[in-house]
Amino acid sequence: MSLGGAIGVCCLAIVLTIPGILAAQDARVAARQPVVARDESRNPVFAGFPLLLQRTDPYGARPLTRIFLAQGSKDIEPPPGLSSFPRAGEVLVSPGLREVLRAEPALAQRLPGRESGLIGPQGLARPEELVAYIGVRRAELPDGVPVARFGKEEAPDPTVAAATLGILRFTMVGIVLVPLAVFLSVCARLSAAERARRLAALRLLGMSAKEVQRVNAAETVAAAGIGSLLGLGVYWVLNQLVSRVGLPGFTWYPSDGTLAGSTVGTCLVGCPALAWVVGRVSARKAATNPLAVRRTAPQKSPSAWGFVPLLAGAGVAAGYCVAGATGHVPSDSGPSALLIPSMVVLIGVGLVTILPRLSRSLAGRIARSTRSLTLGLAMRRNEAEPGGALRVAAGLVLLVFAASLAQGVLIELDQVSRNTAPIQMYDMPDDRLTAAQRAALERIPGIRAHWATAPTHGDETAVGGPPEIVLAACAELRKALPWVGKCTDGQPQRLRDSSVQEQSGTAEAGKKVVVTLVGGRGSLEFKAPRRTLPYRDHAGLPALGSGMILVPPSALPQGARPEEATLSLMSGSDPDTVRAVLDGIAHVVPTIAVAPQGLNVTALQQIAVVKTLLAIGMFLAVVIGIAAYLVAAADRAVERRPQVTALTLLGARRRTLRAVQVAQVVLPLTVGLLLAVVMGKMAESSYLIVGGGTVFWDTDGLPLLLTGTLCVVAVAALGSLPLVGRRIDPELIRRD
User: Fold this and answer.
1) How far, rounded to the nearest angstrom, does the alpha carbon of residue 433 sit from its chain's CA centroid?
2) Which of 149, 280, 514, 568 is the most buried (most CB within 10 A)?
3) Residue 41's pLDDT band (boundaries 50, 70, 90)?
4) Helix (H), strand (E) at residue 59
5) Are 505 and 460 in contact (CB under 8 A)?
6) Which of 122, 165, 173 is nearest to 15 (CA)?
7) Is 208 helix (H, G, I), strand (E, B) or coil?
């Protein structure tokens, strides 16, 4: 009981500490935010205050924060993690950025100056965060803001957004806390049959019913208290070790994971309190009717009230499924914010409470109809002791239910973070690139097409303003767009999206269009073309604008380029391709300002953190489910030793007894797992419907879930085989 309680309390401490870790990270980010100096009229006061300019650029799929600082005549406290302001030409970097610079020296081009030190942990949200403070002269920061002090109440970009944090809390409740409550209850009922006989003996010796219940509850609470202390100690060790190693996509400082007083109180009070309740309930039978504890006494049939929470939760899930199928999709606010978590809890509780009733009913029917000795012995045992099915199968049933819920959460997060269009665009200023760099960017693996756009001058009365030009060959358009009409190389053409009515800018045919060229090369003049090139763009993320003028690159003089031109690259939108392209761009031109259309690097980092935390939750759910099965199966084997010994003395072979043990476990477990799969998919669909995404029915995840369910059944069957030993102890019969 103490070891099982230690595992449960450790898992509980991990779940309760995650919000504190996120809050500590956000607090450090808020502490380094600048507070702009203002006078009474709320106009910026530049004289004397240090100037600051912050830029956040993507480095691969990670944000790189560069903070330029220029000292002033007024002294203020430096940002957290710095002992003093960096002088002009000095660069202070985070430890994570230093490691990146060693692996990618070209990235130093983004950091003008020499590295002179490291940023302390007080100025970083996470150990692997990429942050640099760059000292510059005041004349180099014309766009800088005057800083009166550092420190705000809230971080501009929290580690996990509030809406996503709500999803995380909901998931943790469903996949960790509900199975954890069942696991702790299982641990509190260890050796229930032997304890019941001992308590019945105390009752027959003269103790009152309340005293017997108190004795059992006190023993259970003592074991749970020891387990709680052990669990908190195990958590402290894990926090010290794992925080220094880190997890993929999520790291933290050991101090962030320090146990808060509320967490310690919840673990030290909650676990023993649950043990007290379970101890008193489990001792009620022995205290009120001690003679009914005899093995020959018939057991009371399990109550049918266990179906109530399951039916209530299934009714809520069915209602949402019908609403999604008929197109009446409810919002994720209002009643849904309460109904969805309640549905998960009700279904989870119902799956556990109906197992004894279902196991007894099915066992009785099979026992009456079968002619197999193995099935007959197994089913009669389950019929006589339906509570054993609850203890053995409950943890694994909830594990499968939690896995289905986790699939739904991952699908919704994928819809939130993923670009729904089939393409991904990357825009960058063309004037910052050399010819060699531009050619290298166009050869990055995964790039489908590339072109440049630039503004024009001339017809200022054009609808929507002067049109933009697109410098690209017809072959590039065919690679970039789903459909392109008859395109002729070597002459300007007016682009016309057949699915768009309004155009971004249209010059009247024959009007003069002027494109300014850089490098003292004058300008390119031509007449707005009459010829129209129809095309169809991608849905969700248009690559080009209807009304643009397609100009062949050969129309420009050798080595000339338009002024204020933008280079656009196109790739697929799957996450692996996007990450590879961003890494390739950072490798070719580390200092370039890339604007990935429809891609928020900060949001990607948040999603990576949430997925890591969900992986932690699923790992804890697996640990809890397996631990609950092992604890209950081992305890049940101890209780069954007298019956196994009696059957052995009557001539039953070990092979037959092992088959009986497997059948006893597999039947209730299979029934529970099938219900868990059905209820889990209904709950998952309800969650996806309320989430507002485009995916309601996750049919792709069903084969994986069924495969995992079969693996759970196989593991449970294999775990039942060694429970019948070779040694026969007649003392077990005499003692009984």
Assistant:
1) 38
2) 568
3) very low
4) strand 51-59
5) no
6) 173
7) coil
